[in-house]
């Protein structure tokens, strides 16, 4: 799983903590403070960023078309960008991206997470933990009860990510995760795309 997210988009949990450990030679005497010769906490260096591909920005209000994914009781219908290439990441995860797009452009990922049987609150908090562990220079730009907007650096490229989770049946559990990842110039288009897909997605077959 990513926001390709995302998202991301896939992903373990926990924090990595780096600390310096001073060695004390054996001997008597009273304990005394040690003078610090370097900062006590590590600071992640900001890498030199490479330029993004010069393809046009993701435009708000792009045309969408209805598509069905999944099977049986887990079938979903959702609006997806017209003309984008579709690929299956796994039995419960799907991805869309413009054809012939270079690396570090924009991509949308949708995943069914209903088998986790976890609340949206729990899922969101867990994902922040995973992002903090797995992504470099993570910064949370905005957070609501069911969504995240964040940046991170990968392969010397600054990336913007949007994540949102949906409960489609009133179960109080997260059932669907929508992730869109792209460049800073794509921000407005990504925010609009996530909102439109979230508003149109539903379980079962039929037009979105």
What is this entry, summarized?
This protein has 208 residues and is α+β, with helices and mostly antiparallel strands.
What does this structure look like?
The chain has 208 residues and is an alpha+beta fold. The protein starts with 63 loop residues before the first strand and ends in a 5-residue tail after the last strand. It has helices spanning 120-134, 187-200; strands at residues 64-69, 76-81, 85-90, 93-97, 107-112, 136-143, 147-154, 157-166, 176-182, 202-203. 14% of the residues lie in helices and 31% in strands. It contains two helices and ten strands. It has a domain at 64-74 and 84-202: Mog1/PsbP, alpha/beta/alpha sandwich (Protein Transport Mog1p, Chain A, 3-Layer(aba) Sandwich), CATH 3.40.1000.10. It has a seven-stranded antiparallel beta sheet with strand order 3-4-5-9-8-7-6, sandwiched between helices. Strands 1-2-10 form a three-stranded antiparallel beta sheet.
């Amino acid at each position: 799983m990513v926001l390709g997210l995302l998202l991301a988009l896939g992903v373990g949990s926990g924090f990595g903590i780096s600390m310096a450990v001073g060695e004390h030679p054996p001997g008597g005497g009273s304990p005394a403070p040690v003078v610090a010769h370097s900062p006590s906490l590590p600071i992640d260096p900001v890498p030199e960023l490479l330029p993004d591909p010069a393809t046009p920005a993701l435009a708000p209000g792009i045309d969408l078309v209805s598509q069905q994914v999944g099977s049986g009781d887990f079938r979903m219908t959702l609006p997806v960008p017209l003309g984008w290439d579709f690929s299956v990441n796994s039995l419960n995860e799907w991805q869309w991206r413009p054809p012939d797009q270079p690396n570090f452009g924009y991509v949308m990922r949708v995943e069914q997470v209903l088998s986790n049987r976890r609340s949206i609150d729990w899922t969101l908090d867990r994902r922040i933990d995973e992002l903090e562990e797995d992504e470099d220079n993570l910064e949370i730009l905005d957070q609501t009860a069911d969504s995240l907007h964040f940046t991170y650096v990968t392969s010397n490229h600054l990336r913007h990510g949007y994540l949102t989770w949906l409960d489609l049946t009133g179960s109080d559990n997260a059932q669907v995760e929508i992730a869109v990842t792209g460049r800073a110039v794509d921000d407005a288009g990504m925010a609009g795309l996530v909102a439109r897909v979230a508003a149109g997605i539903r379980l079962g077959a039929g037009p979105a």
